[in-house]
Amino acid sequence: MPDLPALDVLLPADAPTRLLAPRADEAELIGLFATDPATGVHVRANMVSTVDGAATGATRVSGSINGPADLRVFRVLRALADVVLVGAGTVRAERYTPLDVPAELRAARAALGRRDALELAVVTASGELPGSLLDTDRPPLVLTTASAASLGTLRARLGDDRVIVADGGTPGAVDPRAVVAALADRGLVHVLAEGGPTLLAQLVDADLVDELCLTWSPQLVGGPAGRIAHLPTWFAPARALTLSHLLHADGVLLGRWQVARLGA
């Protein structure tokens, strides 16, 4: 287990525990973030931002702005998920590999009814993904379009069961509703979306995101970095958020927000 900090519970004010000391099994933190498995599909987004709103530092990857406090929550959120959903650009930039749950968190995962394996699902309109991810003994689920030039190659390489066509109304674009529905059809109902900003914005715009976990890194980076959600148009309407809890360690703030669903 890595050296991870204790987390102060700043909000809610009536929280029974005010300090979450690191534990190998992370029972308290898992209890704080666990969702009811009987509520159907649940989409949770997890992102990090600097105080000046940048989703990355100068290296253009989120690893340059996160740290131990963020890692502690990150590990727990993955342990609670059936599947991690990521856009192809983020997969390439952050160099994703097949995912594993830390050994010390597997018992809690099993107790919540999650499968042993944590799936990785990648959204890509083009179907172009690095061979280092595809040519493994645990390739990702790939959600793409019928018009992707590499669709046949992907199916031959991964098998039909690992390649999902998720077309929508826009030609050549992956439909986020079809993505989430396809995952649910496979029993992957606890979805953890890790970005990038375009995929997160598409999920929000499609009214699919139930909650947002956002870490604020105590940095000012300036530069041209984008925000955690990016679309060329505004959300209409803007989505209201309700704060569930706020944690703190070493100047890092970690918020968990419930997202108001338009269809609710």
Rough shape? globular
Give the strand content. Answer: 15-25%
Spatial strand arrangement across the major sheet: 2-1-10-11-9-3-8-4-5-6-7
Structural class, by secondary structure, is alpha/beta
Distance between the termini: 40 Å
Largest sheet: 11 strands, mixed
As residue ranges, the low-confidence spans are: none
Helicity, in percent?
10-25%
Secondary-structure element string: EEHEHEHHEHEHEHEHEEE
Radius of gyration: 18 Å
Taking all residues together, what is the mean pLDDT?
94
Task: Write the topology of this structure.
Layout: E1 7-11, E2 19-20, H1 27-33, E3 42-50, H2 68-80, E4 83-87, H3 88-94, H4 106-111, E5 119-123, H5 131-134, E6 141-144, H6 151-158, E7 163-165, H7 176-185, E8 190-193, H8 197-205, E9 211-217, E10 241-249, E11 252-259
Parallel strand pairs: 3-8, 3-9, 4-5, 4-8, 5-6, 6-7
Antiparallel strand pairs: 1-2, 1-10, 9-11, 10-11
